[in-house]
Amino acid sequence: MSAERKPVLDLDVSAARKDFPALHQEVHGKPLVYLDNAATTQKPTAVIDAIDRFYRLDCSNVHRGVHELSERATKAFEEARTSVKRFINARTEREIVFVRGTTEAINLVANSYGRSHLKAGDEILISALEHHSNIVPWQLLSDQVGTRLVAAPINDDAELMLEEFERRLGPNTALVAVAHVSNALGTVMPVQEIVRMAHDRNVPVLIDGAQAVSHLRVDVRELGCDFYAFSGHKVFGPTGIGILYGREDLLDRMPPYQGGGDMIRSVTFEKTTYNELPYKFEAGTPHIAGAIGLGAALDYLSRLGIDHVTDYERGLLAYGTELLESIRGLRLIGTAREKAAVLSFVLEGIHPHDVGTVLDRLGIAVRTGHHCAQPVMARFGVPATTRASLAFYNTKAELDALADGIRQVQQWFKL
Ligand code: PMP
Q1: 225 is an active site residue
Q2: How far apart are the CA of 133 and the centre of ligand 1, in A?
Q3: What's the 3-state SS for the chain?
Q4: Confidence of residue 10 (pLDDT cuts 50, 70, 90)
Q5: In the chain, what are the domains?
Q6: Which one of 102, 178, 287, 344 would you pick to mutate in the ligand 1 pocket, going by the greatest count of ligand atoms within 8 A of its CB?
Q7: Ligand 1: which residue has its CA nearest to atom 5?
Q8: 197-216: average pLDDT
Q9: Which of 73, 349, 350, 380 lies most in the core, judged by the most C-beta atoms within 10 Å?
Q10: Whole-prediction pTM value?
């Protein structure tokens, strides 16, 4: 623990919960227990107010007008970029590209970097527990360019088999693309080692951080990764905004992803020259309010202290794991030693959709299905799971409610 880190007790969860208006409501006559944070997180008033202020007072386009509102909007938009840079410890704002979300960030890299730097026969190495958005863009690239997708296996605890991963890092590997944290099962991937192994062979690494940023400290310089993607809405910010971090020298060498306004320096019918980073990758009017909201979300999380969040959630996960393990007929899927606060499970004889529906009647929001990670479901021989995914505003009492709810589901189905 570093010297400036404060004790765990400093995360005052009941005070923090007050910042999230949506948590304080009843659903089907029961207090809401929101355990679907891997799908999207709730928003604090700091975020709602920042968006409200933009639309009430500062609404204007950015980088264009000389008038006061446009200057205010541009300032707020660019300050948000600085908040993102600070939050992930990037070197410069030029490395921070606003995109729609993780999905668009990965598609940007596949289209821009992939089509300009990769060729037929090159391999893209991923893991067996990726979200579809870190699989399908690479398959599209394979169709276009002739690259090949290779997946490194995971063990029965849903941990990456590092030796197997390293064995697949061969002479044809041209890019590694892995999740930082698995959305379906919660595994925290050994990204530091993955980056080291890949860089030893001069292979760049993209990390899908969609599920990491709300749980763990992310320092792109310490990780040494080449690209890092995440979505605003999974880190207490708005939907429709996300980040592609890219190392400046790499982004510099990549062609634009989309053409249009703001990404150009000059246009004639004969020749167009492109704007500097990061604007080269931000064609068209951006999601200005979204970026401002995301900046507010990251500032909020920084004030709370991401290390406190990690510590608190570790305790919550241990408590929830023990509770669920004590339920007869429940099988936890995903038991990695390094795990973020996700509890994915199946109940003997009851379909996950039925579990989710009954829990909803009790006011408990969980996700059921394949979680956009069908290959990992196939690996564990299940079509779907029920997933309770936690955030720092969840409590042990809510996990007690979940466990009670699951027992009620079992009674309902008389198992
Ligand atoms: N990767 C992971 C690990 C995710 O959990 C998600 C969202 N479930 C995505 C990518 C895609 O994120 P988005 O839909 O916000 O683009």
Answers
A1: no
A2: 7
A3: CCCCCCCHHHCCHHHHHCCCHHHCCEECCEECEECECCCCCCCCHHHHHHHHHHHHHHCCCCCCCCCHHHHHHHHHHHHHHHHHHHHHCCCCHHHEEEECCHHHHHHHHHHHHHHHHCCCCCEEEEECCCCHHHCHHHHHHHHHHCCEEEEECECCCCCECHHHHHHHCCCCEEEEEEECECCCCCEECCHHHHHHHHHHCCCCEEEECCCCCCCCCCCHHHHCCCEEEEEHHHHCCCCCCEEEEECHHHHHHCCCCCCCCCCEEEECCCCEEECCCCHHHCCCCCCHHHHHHHHHHHHHHHHHCHHHHHHHHHHHHHHHHHHHHCCCCEEEECCCCCECCEEEEEECCECHHHHHHHHHHCCEECEEECCCCHHHHHHCCCCCEEEEECCCCCCHHHHHHHHHHHHHHHHHCCC
A4: confident
A5: 13-39+305-412 (3.90.1150.10), 47-303 (3.40.640.10)
A6: 102
A7: 183
A8: 98
A9: 73
A10: 0.97
pLDDT averaged over the chain?
A: 96
Q: Is 176 in the pocket of ligand 1 (CB under 6 A)?
A: no
Residue nearest to atom 4 of ligand 1 (CA): 210
Per-residue pLDDT reduced to its tens digit, 269-284: 999 999 999 999 999 9
Q: What is the pLDDT at residue 415? A: 59
Residue 118 Cβ < 6 Å to ligand 1: no
Q: What is the average pLDDT across 227-249?
A: 98
Report pLDDT for 414: 77
Condensed to tens digits (0 to 9), the pLDDT of residues 88-144 reads: 999 999 999 999 999 999 999 999 999 999 999 999 999 999 999 999 999 999 999
